[in-house]
Amino acid sequence: MDPTDAEMTEARILVALDDAGAALEALSAAAALASRLRAELFGLYVEDIDLLRLAGLPFSRSVGHSSAREQPLDFEGVERAFRRQAERMRELLEEAAERERLAWSFRVSRGRLLETMMEQAGRSDLLVFYRPRRAAAPHRGLARSVAVLLRQVGEVRQVLDVGLHLARSGGGELVVLAADPALRAPAETWLEGHRARARFVPLPDLSLALPEAVAREAATALVMGSGDGIEPALAGALEQVGCPVVLCRVSGAE
Hints:
By secondary structure, the protein is an alpha/beta fold. The protein has helices at about 20-35, 50-55, 75-100, 115-120, 155-170, 185-195, 205-215, 230-240; strands at about 10-15, 40-50, 60-65, 70, 105-110, 125-130, 145-150, 175-180, 200, 220-225, 245-250.
């Protein structure tokens, strides 16, 4: 048993499922953690409230993928599409859970992705989502890594614990993105206690530099603490990182 196993038991992992391609990536990261940590997998399908509001406007239009023809954006049609997508997301979740022999549950909610995840998290210890970048920067180098973002001392133990689990299970390098240079010392102390090593990268301007740093490190996942919420500028950056994001519900963060 790894020294961190005792710290991460009886957990529940919430995974946001709002797009078929993104769902496979997010489910892969969430199922790997759930299997390792003996956790329940909780799938949340989020119906985009902004798209529904747009569909209610008389001038709204959509363009068909195959026909490339413009047509009215129909409210009832969007709701039907949401129901079909939700059923597909449920099927993908069930398949992933059965492969790993995990307990699982599924829920449909309406809102904006990050806000709804935080509202629906309940007793979930980890939250996973993935929004593919429209124009992702190419990965540099051959090695792939797990990136951990540290913003305050109180989250060091829990965030590094999850990041180390992912890095070890995937055989990748652990990279610590530090918002404050003072975080390196407590992080190194924790890593030494768990017989682990990491490469440290300073990252003072999170909202501007985070997506590029994650792409540069060829990260397969980004792990960070969620605290009481995610500020809007950082939330926007997280939706551009181009890999699954794992949010840790940090307790006792300073």
